[in-house]
Structure of Putative ABC transport system permease protein:
Amino acid sequence: MNIFQIAFSNLKRRKIKMLFLMMGLVVGVATVVAFQSIILGMNLDLGNRIDELGANVVIIPRSEGFEAHYGGTMVSDVTFDAQELTLDDIPNIYASSVAEYINIVSPKLVGAVKIEGKNTLIVGVETKKEFMQKPWFSLKEQVDLKPGESTADLGLIELPEDNVIVGTTAAKALNLEIGDLVKLNDQSFRVFGVLNELGSEEDGLIYANLSVVQNLLDKPNELSMIEVSAYCNYCPIEEIAMGLEEAIPNGRVISMRQAALFREETIEKFSKFGYALSGMVLLIAALVVLTTMVSSVNERTREIGIFRAVGFRKIHIIKILFLEIGMISALGGTIGYLIGIVVARYAGPYLAQISGEIPFQFGWFLPVVLTSIGLSILISLYPALKAARLDPAEALRFI
């Protein structure tokens, strides 16, 4: 009978104790795998939400400037060497080194127009891109709706060139309703719809097609800013900002660090909790392995004495114990891995309040099982050495 057969026979004779040992490993491994999978799922989910919630970076015309002070008091901001953004810059974004990350590019021109003698801000946008980038915009009222019809999704609307969309505050201030005709710089436009209140400065704006606003403001081809949404699950926003800066030297790129920081902070907090809980569970599992192996060695004193008496060396005793714990930890690691990914897949979305599915991490299988084996053998080192050092004569006294 070789060493492997001896170790396997020992496991079969001590089924209950080995089952208890394996359960400890299963719980520890399953907890770690489940938490790490949920953290990964949260990362992906938050990345997707940020991708859906507007621009990651904003590009504005580059300019140089400084604050002018006199007598210790700032009297004005001085700006010089102001450059322009134009529609010709858009192709450069798609040709940049970070083009693979680009999702939506929304150019816009902001300016003031006269309405009944009052200056009012108007924003020229490519409506589909603008409202797809900002899905929280919605219509409260819309022209030409039949009874029972609901307002259209702004991201799907082709706004006619002689129509405008009005924010809630602007509609109240100018006393506008859907279907009204309004003159902007002496050109007539129809109010296509009124936006639902957002509680921000956008409520006071009027939206029209970009080309129309460029003509109204006599700024053909010119842009005030370009908002860019990026796929940022695995890319740093700062890296995208640097890539766009290189592509558009006449623009200054501002990354939306708040969104990035919010995502990082949220994941970091949950990760710390997950690591702490996983560490505690692993510690408990390690103590279970240690106490079980020490107890097993104490119970097998007579058996070990016989092995030593018939010629087994210390290294053979250590190998037998390591083979036993190796087989148990391999099986426990495999079962724990399977339970962990299944729990994360089906319970993770409810526990972490995420909308997407948590992907199976099949690539984790081998590292998880090898880690389970390695840790178990490391923890079993003390009881294995204790068993190997048993004096055969002393051990045989228990016969």
In short: The longest helix spans residues 257-299. Residues 3-52+263-396 form one domain.
